[in-house]
Design goal:
65 residues, alpha+beta, two-stranded antiparallel sheet
Length: 65
């Protein structure tokens, strides 16, 4: 796993040297996407844990399908 401190982005700037975009290595991009997906999973888990759970009898669940 690549450490964030090891990322070496290159910036695209406009005429006034204001940063407009960033270029990163494809492997860094893939790592960032993987980490974002993990964060999404954690957020979904946390949200689900906060919700009250409703248990349904198995037979009733099968009938509703």
């Amino acid at each position: 796993m690549t450490m964030i401190k090891d990322f070496k982005p290159k910036y695209i700037v406009d005429e006034s040297s204001k940063e407009q975009a960033v270029i990163i290595d494809i492997e860094v991009w893939k790592e960032l996407l993987e980490r974002l997906e993990m964060l999404d999973d954690i957020e979904a888990y946390d949200k689900t844990k906060k919700e009250s759970l409703e248990f349904v009898d198995f037979e009733k669940a099968v009938k509703e399908l």
